[in-house]
Design goal:
This protein is α/β, with parallel strands linked by helices. The chain has helices spanning 2-34, 58-73, 91-100, 110-113, 132-139, 142-150, 193-202, 214-220, 230-235, 261-265, 269-303, 313-334, 336-351; strands at 45-50, 78-83, 105-106, 156-171, 186-189, 205-208, 225-228, 244-260, 307-309. The radius of gyration is 26 Å and the shape is globular.
Length: 352
């Protein structure tokens, strides 16, 4: 009898333990179903931030600054994973991933963003911004900030402007010092209609392609050259496959710090303020680094054997005049109010 009672007690205890364990398992499973793709098992949110440039570029250093600020300010509630060198795809692929909510952050130039919000093509108007100081003033102004707000219609959140910088021309065929020197050059451009038509007007043969394919294309002679800021030209080792660099300064190119709207909307108001403030602070850091390094990068390119050509004011004006019809052709596509607003902002900034 005593043995029977003991066996009954042990069986009852085992049943209770199994039942309790089963309850925890069900609760965990239900909680797991409610976790977003951007949350770890511990509940903290994860930002996967990818860029196309490599780990030595000021843009990536700015991204590391963003990571530092966000993780510190949120006490680990949000962690930031950083990916460089196109590890998550090219600009367009990553931007589409933000729209789908499968990636949280990327920082493309304005040119590929124009595929989603055409008004961003205003920054691709050739020779629009004459200096960094004017660019700073314009990007902080109402027209540029209103463009960031338009991104929400495309399931994107524009948190701040960073700096890619003045785009300059390199090639492996000949020095480019005059308008006529563009003639027939096969130049890789971004997938942006305004860029394509501007280079056609200058006499070049523009070829759009993903940045991740560019080095090989130049190496194999698929294209003769490309156009990017000095930092990109040097840090991507383009001097290995390019012989000539010219200070065409044909476009001042901002970066835009983009976040997935799906992810942003899932943050608390406090977390939203933290990521927005972090993007702005990290952007100031990135711009400072970028400008400090520009002269050094140009000298490095010459030290690596590239021949540098300086464009005279007279020749630059010829280039400006040549692309004016293209600007008029695209004005309606971009939006007349946006174009006029930016140009007025440029005039005001120059007059200060």
């Amino acid at each position: 009898m005593k043995k029977l009672m003991t066996l009954f007690a042990l069986s009852l205890l085992a049943f209770v333990l199994v039942a309790c364990g089963g309850g925890d398992s069900n609760e965990t499973e239900q909680n797991g179903e409610n976790e977003s793709a951007s949350e770890s098992e511990g509940g903290e949110k994860v930002i996967r931030a990818g860029i196309g440039l490599n780990q030595n570029h000021p843009q990536y250093k700015g991204l590391l600054k963003f990571k530092e600020i966000v993780e510190e300010e949120t006490g680990g509630e949000i962690t930031v994973e950083t990916y460089h060198s196109g590890q998550l795809g090219d600009d367009r692929t990553m931007t589409e991933a933000l729209q789908l909510g499968t990636q949280e952050v990327t920082i493309p130039s304005t040119a590929p963003i124009a595929n989603f919000v055409p008004e961003f093509s205003v920054f691709d108007i050739p020779f629009l911004l004459p200096s960094e100081e004017v660019a700073d003033e314009v990007l902080a102004g109402d027209v540029a900030q209103d463009l960031l707000a338009k991104l929400e219609e495309k399931d994107l959140v524009g948190l701040s402007y960073w700096e890619n910088g003045f785009r300059d021309l390199t090639n492996s065929e000949r020095p480019v010092e005059t308008l006529e020197d563009f003639d027939g050059l096969k130049i890789r451009t971004m997938e942006n209609d305004l860029h394509l038509e501007a280079f056609k007007a200058l006499g070049a043969n523009p070829t759009p392609m993903a940045f991740t394919e560019l080095f090989t294309a130049m190496q194999q002679g698929t294209v003769d050259g490309q156009e990017n800021p000095y930092a990109t030209i040097y840090l991507e080792n383009f001097y290995e496959v390019q012989d000539y660099v010219s200070d065409t300064h044909h476009v001042y190119s901002p970066f835009v710090f983009l976040m997935s709207k799906q992810f942003y909307d899932g943050l608390t108001e406090e977390q939203q303020e933290i990521v927005r403030s972090a993007a702005e602070e990290a952007g100031e850091h990135q711009i400072k680094l970028n400008r400090e390094a520009n002269a050094e990068y140009l000298q490095n390119l010459q030290d690596e054997g590239m021949e540098f050509s300086e464009i005279s004011d007279e020749e630059r004006q010829k280039m400006v005049d040549t692309v004016q019809p293209v600007i008029e052709d695209f004005k309606d596509d971009i939006g007349p109010e946006v174009v006029d607003g930016i140009m007025e902002a440029v005039e005001n900034a120059q007059g200060e």
